[in-house]
Amino acid sequence: MMPRDDSESVGVVRRTIAALNRLGLDEALDLMHPDVELRTPLLELWRTEREGHDRVREWFERIEREWAFLELYDVELEERRGQVLGRMRARGRGKASRNELDWELHVAAEVVDGRLARFATHLSRERALNAIQATLRGDADG
After folding, report:
1. Domain 8-137: assigned CATH number
2. In angstroms, rounded to a whole number, what is the distance separating the alpha carbons of residues 38 and 32?
3. What is the pTM of this model?
């Protein structure tokens, strides 16, 4: 288990995850840079072309429309060289399919000037670490 780190960056990521759980769109947008880079396995499946706050809005709309529930829990975060790394679980059930998911997700995030600039979830810790290393190198595509 990673130690709890209450740095400003970790706090912003924690508050954003809490807003996502509450489907608090306005609250989440207030915590995010207008050009936030949001990458999740669900958004990749949906093949959205939107970016920034528009991408976040689409994520919220699709979750409300397609999921009976989706929650992020067991969140563990730490700051590493100015980036936020962590793990959490995502549990949910689709409305139409009634299929359930329970995934372990690994977080790679960056907070700039007190706002979330990048937030990506990956299916492996290695991919999250690679994303953070790419950000530190200046290669945003990871």
Report:
1. 3.10.450.50
2. 10
3. 0.84
